[in-house]
Specification:
- This protein is mostly helical.
- The chain folds into 2 domains: 35 residues; 306 residues, no CATH class.
- Helix content is 73%, strand content 0%.
- The chain contains 16 helices and no strands.
- Helix 2 runs parallel beside helix 10, helix 5 packs antiparallel against helix 9 and helix 7 runs antiparallel to helix 9.
- The protein is globular.
- It starts with a helix and ends with a helix.
- It holds the Pfam family ArsP_1.
- InterPro entries: DUF318 (IPR005524), UPF0718 (IPR052923).
- This is Permease.
- It is a multi-pass membrane protein.
Length: 342
């Protein structure tokens, strides 16, 4: 019986290891090496470069979260959100347009905010608006598509953030999203060392228990984010190399509401970041793609590309994940229709 139990445990450990994001990433890269060996260096290089670029955001977010947990400052963060949900939704939607994060880079900050107990409504407002626009993207969009399109995208970003934030708030009023996080939890919530003190201790390194909390938080949260974002960027590299974005976008030409809706649905899984999209869409609009379809395609792609969805799925429960996608697609379609009308 003991042998059987050990065999079962070993089998579970093996299958659990196979299902990890690390293993999936390695298997995908091995498949590229076998099926297309001449392109493996480019795929790996793209994924590593993207991950290295995001690493600074991951490091900052993980250090900040670990520091807040070790000092006990999450108590102050939680208090800052009490009774101010409407204001936080407004500020999150506005500030999201200033944050230079794509849909994958924003994940570490969203994870930290949710882990610290920030309202999902305010987090969702920032989550939806942040990947859409930032100062560099605004200038690039204006240069390729004109200032009306750039301003329209900025307005869409803020509007979508507000729409998502207040929609989540309304749904929460009916008992939804009580516990949005899936497995991303600070180590103290998983049985690790936790400091119980209502008063923050900013110089946490002076106390051994707080140093232990900092180390545990840094390691567990850092590894969690790293493994899922590594998989996200491997998927992104495969999309860039094997699914031409222009072929996807060319399927959504024409006028009317239907092409706008199709553009949002096609743009949802496509890789088309905010720096590549404007020049490509400018050429497609010259070939007959409507301005509304271009706006819907750009908005949907920025919010819910496959790399972003992989990271989001790892972070929150299915109910929140599908709500995020639904808000993103609906917002993209509405943005396209309104921009077409204007």
């Amino acid at each position: 019986m003991a042998d059987i139990a050990q065999s079962t445990s070993a089998r579970r450990d093996w299958t659990g290891w196979v299902k990890t994001p690390w293993t999936v990433s390695v298997v995908l890269l091995i498949a590229v090496a076998v099926l297309d060996p001449g392109n493996v260096r480019e795929v790996v290089g793209f994924a590593l470069a993207a991950l290295a670029h995001t690493a600074r955001y991951i490091l900052f977010a993980v250090l900040l979260l670990a520091y807040l947990k070790a000092t006990g400052a999450e108590v102050l963060v939680a208090r800052a959100f009490e009774g101010r949900e409407t204001r936080m939704i407004l500020l999150a939607a506005l500030f999201g347009g200033l944050a230079p994060f794509c849909s994958c880079e924003v994940i570490p900050f969203i994870a930290g905010l949710l882990a610290l107990g920030a309202p999902l409504s305010a987090v969702m407002a920032f989550w939806l608006s942040s990947p859409l626009i930032d100062p560099p993207t605004l200038l690039i969009t204006a240069g390729a598509l004109g200032w009306p399109f750039a301003i329209g995208k900025a307005v869409a970003a803020v509007g979508l953030g507000l729409f998502g934030g207040f929609a989540i708030r309304a749904l929460k009023g009916h008992g939804a999203f009580a516990a949005p996080l899936k497995v991303y939890k600070p180590s103290g919530c998983c049985g690790g060392t936790k400091v119980e003190d209502p008063k923050p201790h900013w110089a946490f390194w002076q106390e051994e228990p707080r140093r232990a909390v900092f180390k545990a938080e840094f390691v567990s949260n850092g590894l969690f984010l790293l493994k899922w974002l590594a998989l996200a960027y491997v998927l992104e590299a495969l999309l860039v190399n094997y699914v031409p974005a222009d072929l996807i976008a060319q399927a959504v030409g024409g006028e009317g509401v239907v092409p706008i809706a199709v553009a949002a649905l096609v743009g949802m899984p496509a890789y088309l970041n905010s720096y590549v999209a404007p020049p490509l869409l400018a050429g497609l609009m010259e070939q007959g793609m409507s301005a509304g379809a271009a706006m819907a395609f750009m908005v949907a792609g920025a919010i819910s590309s496959i790399p972003a969805m992989a990271a989001v799925w790892s972070l929150v429960k299915p109910q929140v994940f599908f709500t995020y996608l639904g808000l993103g697609i609906a917002g993209a379609i509405v943005s396209g229709i309104l921009f077409q009308m204007v």
